[in-house]
Design brief:
Layout lengths: L8 H8 L4 H4 L3 E5 L4 E7 L12 H17 L7 E12 L6 E12 L3 E9 L5 E13 L15
Antiparallel strand pairs: 1-2, 2-4, 3-6, 4-5, 5-6
Length: 154
Amino acid sequence: MIWKYKFDSETVNLLFFKDNMIGLLGIKCVEVGNDFLKASMPVDERTKQSAGLLHGGANVTLAESIGSIAANLCVDQDKYYAVGLEINANHIRTKHEGFVIGIAKPIHIGQMTQIWEIKIEDETGKLLCMVRHTVAVLPKSAAQKMHFNLPKTN
């Protein structure tokens, strides 16, 4: 298991996916595995562009959100925090309605950087967007308290 804390999808939704842009877009964590974080996002008026297609920026928002949250759950919250450094998205196909699923898996979890692969699929498993997200792992100053009070794993 890659996680530094014990948590489930409900905890992720309560701590990270409400009262912010993630929640406004209807993104919800639906599953946490030993080495992945999975979230859904509706394809509706909040996430479509003017032609009625899923907005590419919504895909990137989904990917960066789950990649950054996953990255932060892999570091010691008392000492470090992770922030987005670079993101690359390849939009393969689009969608008009329903929902999409983003699955974030680590490619590299280092002391100073992490690289995450996020696949965004439709309900049938067809690949819509492939994303690579790099995050920087930074030391916390004494003034920074971004601690989520999750129990640590052993």
